[in-house]
From TrEMBL:
It catalyses: prephenate + H(+) = 3-phenylpyruvate + CO2 + H2O. Residues 4-179 form the Prephenate dehydratase domain. Its EC number is 4.2.1.51. GO terms for molecular function: prephenate dehydratase activity. It comes from Pelagivirga sediminicola. PANTHER family: PREPHENATE DEHYDRATASE P PROTEIN, PREPHENATE DEHYDRATASE-RELATED. Pathway: Amino-acid biosynthesis; L-phenylalanine biosynthesis; phenylpyruvate from prephenate: step 1/1. Keywords: Amino-acid biosynthesis, Aromatic amino acid biosynthesis, Lyase, Phenylalanine biosynthesis. One of its GO terms (biological process) is L-phenylalanine biosynthetic process. This is prephenate dehydratase. It is an enzyme of class 4 (lyase). It comes from the Bacteria. Residues 194-271 form the ACT domain.
Amino acid sequence: MPQTIAFQGEPGAYSHQACRETYPESTAMPCRTFEEAIEAVRSGAADLAMLPVENSTFGRVADIHHLLPGSGLHIIGEAFVRVKIALLALPGTSLPQVRRAMSHPMLLGQCRGFLEAHGIERVTGADTAGSARQVAENAEPQTAALASALAGDIYGLDILADGIEDEGDNTTRFLVMAPAPDMTRRGDAGMMTSFVFTVRNIPAALYKAMGGFATNGVNMTKLESYMVGGTFSATQFYADVEGHPDDANLALALEELDYFTSEVNILGVYPRDPRRD
């Protein structure tokens, strides 16, 4: 049965691309904010949400780790999307005609080499797909957009150059969120478990909490800290580990973690995406 997947951004955004690549038979629902995408799933307007959490070049996506624990949703999958940046222009425009490129500041910064080589001025836009839409609406041949090829298809723009990003392996990781957890699956490439925790106020609490993962041979692929509640004394940690909580070694590690923490919240157990490698 086809599903509806909510994402933040306009049609043609890289989050839209993630929806298409991961669930090609489903309908993608654009939302103005991450909060709106989450609420769409909570309200039943959408079945899933596709949320970006980190980029290989620029690190974690702001605000997402704050939203996940209180969202009421559960991670049921992950998706890795290669960020290929295209220069999009009005049909019939040639590359020498382009004097300005509009996009999100992050994408503008990822194409410095190409833009400087062609003498193209950088213009800040609201986002990638929104810039493509604006270029199509304004109909100024001298202004192009930096966005996905999908955005070019949606807004009727020509691709003057593709894959122009400075870093050839730029990739964004997305989490697939659902109203209910699914602990029954086993992926061919292994499983991932994501959780947040707050350590107890005792000396070396974090060091002791992490010790159980090392002694039980659990690979931790991500550990990040961030402040909660507007105070410097309350720090929450987000972690991704390989394995399923039913695995003996991970079960022992989580048991030891529980002893040194005041709160542990498992956000999701899901198949490991082979594209991690």
